[in-house]
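Is this the right way to post structure tokens for a design question? Let me know if I should format differently. Anyway, here goes:
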């Protein structure tokens, strides 16, 4: 990945996070959770792009988790957050049930941590 691509993923992560925070504030927990997850995934792409020069390209999220394990301390930090977020993806995006407010708030907080790590790393290396 190029430095420009890494910056683009970090920017997408921040945009998804901002949207997740807005949806959370509006009480739309399903949308907030889904957007938080996408923000965290884009943050992971920025981190793995910075640290190992690649990103997960498939639909299998195990690939991104494996790449994060190779991406040093920043990767480990994102791995810990993302592994807790990914199980919510199916619930938020495909299941008919609701996402409780506390779960949505936690998802947005986890995404916030991921985006902060990615932004910090990208600022140091690009």
């Amino acid at each position: 990945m190029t430095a420009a691509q890494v910056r683009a993923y970090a920017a997408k992560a921040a945009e998804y996070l901002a949207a997740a925070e807005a949806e959370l504030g509006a009480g739309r927990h399903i949308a907030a959770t889904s957007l938080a997850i996408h923000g965290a995934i884009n943050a992971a792409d920025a981190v793995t792009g910075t640290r190992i020069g690649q990103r997960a390209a498939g639909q299998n999220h195990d690939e991104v988790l494996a790449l994060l394990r190779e991406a040093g301390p920043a990767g480990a930090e994102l791995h810990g957050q993302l592994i807790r977020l990914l199980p919510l993806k199916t619930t938020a995006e495909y299941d008919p049930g609701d996402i409780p407010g506390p779960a949505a708030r936690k998802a947005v907080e986890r995404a916030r941590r991921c985006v902060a790590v990615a932004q910090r790393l990208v600022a140091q290396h690009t």
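Format looks fine. Someone answered above. Worth noting: The first helix runs from residue 3 to 25. The chain has one domain: 3-125.
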